[in-house]
């Protein structure tokens, strides 16, 4: 990730000589040392917030530079094929890469830090009773409250959620990176979310990097209902719906945790449609086998910083949006409400999702 932009921006345009070459190379060497050191100090056992911020910012900047340097080198190859050779062409390409990277970095920071856009999606549910037609399920996921203090952002998100007049609000995992003592002030505003039929929370993989049970307990203390391989039956106008939730697969390493869909659905009225919160889209295989009507997931961040979504497709069946799967199961994959690591989103805007449920005709 550092060698490619070093070549495209420093070595080729300077022909590996002169002051710019020496200064630029020194800067890349410093990045080569500082980036892993900051990430280890920030996200490893030391858990130093200031180091995490430095490492995350550097990681985002380097990824953008790497991605666009690759594109720049492809363009440079094309220019050579049409006869544009020499250091001047390399300098034009390098300048273009720098300008694009600076613009996209600024745009990415803005996209990540603002209150997410509201994305409204109509979903037809087989067997949904008439009394539940138009039920509004607001989805939050991947808030990743972490080293950068986002308490004010958290309050504005709550205001936006309440403005959507939700019947149900679900937070589909990856609430935080850190302990309750470190992050509770950022999460506390979620106590203000209003949803008459329930506020539900499941764990994501990042809860299992720390003490997931403490976060389940904390969310209970501020009025949310954790769905720890469990379900609730909600009712409106005499008609009912099952809302269930399962743990993230990374919970398998923690006693008493790990996804158990059979336990989550045990005792449900199978004549009722099921809306299941499961953090990872890949969990839809089990949901389909169990006949779940709708799974709601996050985890992918929609790629967060282009073109990372191509790598996500190697691990997950869907990157974002509504998709259909075996046995009539539908999956909605949110791009996420916050961000992890680099405080940037490039061509993958965050979202507060409003799923409006309707009977399937």
Query: What overall geometry do the principal axes of the alpha carbons give?
Result: elongated
Low-confidence stretches: none
Helical/strand content category: alpha/beta
The largest β sheet comes out as: 6 strands, mixed
Q: Please name the CATH architecture of the largest domain.
A: 4-Layer Sandwich
Please count the helical segments. Answer: 10
- Total domains, how many? 2
Give the radius of gyration: 23 Å
- Overall mean confidence score, pLDDT: 96
Number of strands: 12
Distance between the termini: 51 Å
Helix percent band: 25-40%
Give the strand order, joined by hyphens, for the main sheet: 1-12-2-3-4-5
User: Do you know the CATH topology of the largest domain?
Assistant: Purple Acid Phosphatase, chain A, domain 2
Identify the quaternary structure here.
single chain
How much of the sequence is in beta strands? 15-25%
Order of helices and strands: HHHHEEHEHEHEEEHEHEHEEE
CATH classification, class level of the largest domain: Alpha Beta
Question: Considering the protein shown, what is the CATH homologous superfamily of the largest domain?
Answer: Metallo-dependent phosphatases
Transmembrane segments: 19-41, 53-79, 91-110
GO molecular function: metal ion binding; UDP-2,3-diacylglucosamine hydrolase activity
Keywords: Hydrolase, Membrane, Metal-binding, Transmembrane, Transmembrane helix
GO cellular component, one term: membrane
